[in-house]
Amino acid sequence: MPSALWLGLLACAAGDECNSLQLLQHRLDLAPSPVWPLKYLHVPKCGTSFLNAVVHLPGVCDVDAHFGLDKETLGRHFEKHFWRKCGQVCNASKFSCNPAATTHESIGSSYEAYKGHLVTMLRKPESRVLSAYFDPVWRHGAGTYNSVLEYAQGVRGLVTCQLTQDKAVDPLPKCTDLKEADAHEAARRLREGFVFVGLVEEWDLSICLFHKMLGGDCLFSEFENTRQNPNEYNTSELQGFNDTLDGIVYQEARSIFQRNLKLYGVSNESCQPCFQRAQLTADLEILRVRGFARPLPLDLAPFAVVLLSLLSA
After folding, report:
1. What are the backbone angles phi and psi of residue 168, rounded to the nearest 5°?
2. CA gyration radius for the chain?
3. Which of 1, 59, 102, 181 has the fewest beta carbons closer than 10 A?
C-alpha cells in the first residue's frame, strides 16, 4: 500500500476528517492513467489568465517563457486567436485544444471523454455575475437585460449548465429548466472528473497549487489579470439574489481546493519560492522589453532592473 495512503489511514484512525483520504484515494486511482491530455474548461469571467499557467507546463505548448495570452501579445481577441493556432503549437498528447468559435465550451455529453483530464478556475457566483455584467469590453449578453438583478436571474445556474449540458453559456445560457439535482450532478463531476480546481478569489495560491500538482515553474504571466475590470462590485445591487444552483457547485469547488491545499502542503509560506520566481521572471521581462538582450542569470535580474532604473532616471 502506498505510504501516503497509510498516512491518510492513520489520520482517519486518529479521528480526523476522512475527506482528504477519499481525495487521496482518487489521486491514486488516477495514477495508472496519466492526466494528459489536459482539457481546460473556461467558465466566463473566471480567469482567462489561468490559460497562461496551462500552456507553460513542460511539454504542453511550444511557447517560451516570454509568451503571454494577452492583448499585447495576440491582440484584442487573444483567446480566440490562440485557439486557432493551438493545434499548431501545442502537443495533442498533452493538451486538448478548445474550439475557437466557442471559448466557453460546455462539456455535457463530452464529460466521460474528458473525465480525469479537466482543469478549471471558479469564483463565487454573485461575483462572477457582477464581473460579467459590468465588463467594459465584452457584454456577455447583458445588453438584453434592464438591470444587473434581471441579468443575474437570467444567467442563474450558468456553471451548472456548462458542466452538465451542451448548450451555449456565453453570451447567454440556454439552460432554463435546471433543478437542484443538476447542480449536485455538476458538483459530482467537479469532484470526480477534474484534475485541478482553482479559485479566482485565491488566485496566487491557486497558481502555486497548480504547479505543485502538475509541475513547471511559476511565471509572471500567470499572475497577471489579462481581462481586468476596473469596477468595484457592490453586491447590494443584486438585492439579496443568490444563485443557489451555482452556489452548490462553488461550495464543492472550495472544498476540493481546501483539501488539495492540505494534501499537497500548499500555503502562503510554502509558496514563497513560487512567488519569488514569478517576480524574477517579471524582472527579466522588464529587461527584455527595455532591450537588455544579453543572457542574465535569473537571480541577477532584480539588480539589473534597479540599475537600469537609476541610469534612466
Report:
1. -65, 140
2. 21
3. 1
- The pLDDT value given to residue 164: 97
Same domain, 233 and 283: no
| pTM for the whole structure | 0.81
Question: Residue 9 falls within a domain, yes or no?
Answer: no
Q: Write the CB contacts of 144 (distance below 8 Å, at least 6 apart in sequence).
A: 154, 172
By the 10 Å C-beta count (0-12 exposed, 13-18 middle, 19+ buried), 196 is classed as: buried
Query: Are 252 and 283 part of one and the same domain?
Result: no
Cα dist. 147→154, 171, 226, 297 in Å?
A: 11, 16, 26, 53
Residue % of the chain over a pLDDT of 90 = 57
Total domain count, the chain: 2
**Three cell numbers written together for 88:** 499548431
C-alpha cell at 54: 496551462
Owning domain of residue 79: 34-270
CA-nearest of 188, 125, 133, 189 to 157 is 125
Give one DSSP letter per residue of 58-120, joined into a string. TTTBS--TT---SHHHH-TTHHHHHHHHHHHHB-TTTEEPPPTT-TT---TTTHHHHTTSEEE
Same domain (yes/no): 66, 213: yes
